[in-house]
Amino acid sequence: MNSKDEIYMELAIAEAKKAEKINEVPIGAVLVKDGEIISTAFNLRESTQNAVTHAELLAIEKACEALGTWRLEGVELYVTLEPCPMCSGAILLSRIDRVVYGAKDPKAGCAGTLMNLLTDHRFNHQCQVVSGVLEERCGALLSSFFRNLRQRKKDEKKQKKGAME
Questions:
Q1: Where is the CMP/dCMP-type deaminase domain (predicted)?
Q2: What span, in angstroms and rounded, lies between the C-alpha atoms of 90 and 101?
Q3: Does the annotation mark 56 as catalytic?
Q4: Pairwise CA distance, residues 75 & 62, whole Å
Q5: How confident is the model at residue 136 (pLDDT cuts 50, 70, 90)?
Q6: How far is Cα 41 from Cα 161, in angstroms, rounded to an integer?
Q7: Rounded CA separation 107/114 (Å)
Q8: Annotated binding-site residue numbers for Zn(2+)
Q9: Could you report the per-residue pLDDT of 9-44, keeping only the tens digit for each?
Q10: Cα–Cα distance, 49 to 26 (Å, whole number)
């Protein structure tokens, strides 16, 4: 880990906070090439009701448009949560060179936790993976979001029960 990684992860955290403001799971992504930010994105799955609108996929799509190619060679991805199988597949297929993530995902992480698709030599491309960059902050953002979500649902349930009595 280096200070450059922390700087770009800060930007990914800022993207995640944008998601949180609109009641999306707070995950943010930033794509960088040669020290220049190519694209940024945050989760929009709840807003779009579309399973593929993860932060990484949206950022990859924007980067392909910006660079005019699907081959994102020389590009680094910074994301607040370990990529899932779908996002890991897109990362491989778009030829991203390096993936830096914050918090581990024990339920869907495919960059080292459940498996590591990104470094599997059976694929024709592998990525360098760096984990745990600003891990506590990335994890706290998610934990806080889900704790608040559970509390809101509990409060709504109480209100409905009270209205029925």
A1: 3-112
A2: 15
A3: yes
A4: 13
A5: very high
A6: 39
A7: 8
A8: 54, 84, 87
A9: 999 999 999 999 999 999 999 999 999 999 999 999
A10: 16
**94 secondary structure, DSSP code:** T
Burial 82-114 (b: 16+ CB within 10 A, else e): bbbeebbbbbbebbbbbbbbbbbbeeebbbbbb
CA dihedral sign of residues 89, 93, 96, 97? positive
Residues at the annotated binding site?
A: 54, 84, 87
Query: What does DSSP say about strands 75-81 and 28-33: parallel, antiparallel, or unpaired?
Result: antiparallel
Beta strands in the chain (DSSP E): 28-33, 36-42, 75-81, 98-103, 128-130
CA dist 79 and 14 (Å) reads 11
Catalytic one of 20, 56, 76, 82: 56
With 0.90 as the threshold, say if the pTM is over it.
yes
| pLDDT score at 1 | 55
